[in-house]
Design a protein that fits this description.
Elements: H1 9-24, E1 27-31, E2 35-37, H2 39-51, E3 58-62, E4 77-80, E5 87-91, H3 92-95, H4 105-110, H5 121-135, H6 143-152, E6 156-160, E7 165-167, H7 205-215, H8 219-235
Parallel strand pairs: 3-6
Antiparallel strand pairs: 1-5, 2-7, 3-5, 4-6
């Protein structure tokens, strides 16, 4: 058991705990705080950890389906580039190149390689913005670095077509999930049933864009939020 004597913050505490975990175990399941899984989640992770144990194309298994109202493909899950971390599983082999300080970011951006990850500029600009915030220590977190690890390794992430993990921690007390009205808050849980595997190892980029579209504010929402902030300042 690993206990920290002091609050290390999200970046050092979580990444340090995962490093410790994978230094002791070759594979396993990780559950974020404030995240509620169902029984299907553990069975799903166990089966796929075994199935893809030696398949280095696969780097991440997620239990959350952020686009839960829409299915992608006929299988129980699909391959994606998104590393959702509310409830997930992986292997030591996939985590071993994790770099919390983003040492490869500068050259990755200099070579303009994000255009080979996603063609949608709104998506890549938002990802680059998040990476810059972490790199310049404006954002204290660990998962953006993990996503970048899988981008530059061209890894495939498994995302289910059924939601098995619900984040119940959205609200003013949340560290990074303060918006209780978020489209991703308190998603309903679903049982996955008999597992059906996809036939092809191709990332479904359409599914990623569907999730990113829900996450990225529209221009109208940005303008509205800016006006609300200005109005709030005027009333102070």
């Amino acid at each position: 058991m690993l206990y920290q004597q002091h609050n290390l913050g999200c970046k050092a505490a979580v990444s340090g705990a995962i490093k410790w975990f994978f230094s002791n175990e070759p594979e396993g399941i990780i559950l974020e705080d404030d995240c509620l899984p169902n029984e299907s989640f553990f069975r799903f992770c166990d089966l796929l950890l075994e199935k893809y144990r030696f398949d280095t194309r696969i780097v991440h298994i997620s239990g959350a389906c952020l686009g839960h109202e829409k299915k992608f493909g006929r299988a129980s899950y699909y391959f994606s580039k998104i590393t959702n971390i509310w409830g997930w599983a992986s292997w030591r082999r996939a985590w071993q190149n994790y770099d919390e300080n983003l040492m490869l970011l500068e050259n990755f951006l200099k070579d303009d390689l994000f255009k080979y990850v996603y063609e949608n500029k709104a998506v890549t600009n938002r990802l680059i913005e998040s990476l810059h915030q972490v790199h310049t220590m404006q954002l204290n977190t660990w998962d953006v670095q993990y996503a970048f690890l899988n981008f530059w390794n061209n890894g495939l992430c498994i995302n289910p077509n059924f939601n098995m993990v619900s984040n119940i921690g959205f609200g003013h007390l949340g560290t990074h999930t303060k918006d209780s009205t978020s489209k991703f808050a308190n998603l309903p849980l679903e049982e996955i049933g008999q597992l059906v595997h996809p036939d092809f190892f191709v990332p479904i980029v359409e599914a990623d864009y569907y999730v990113y579209k829900k996450e990225l504010p529209t221009i109208a929402e940005r303008v509205s939020n800016k006006l609300k902030r200005l109005l709030g300042l005027a009333l102070l």
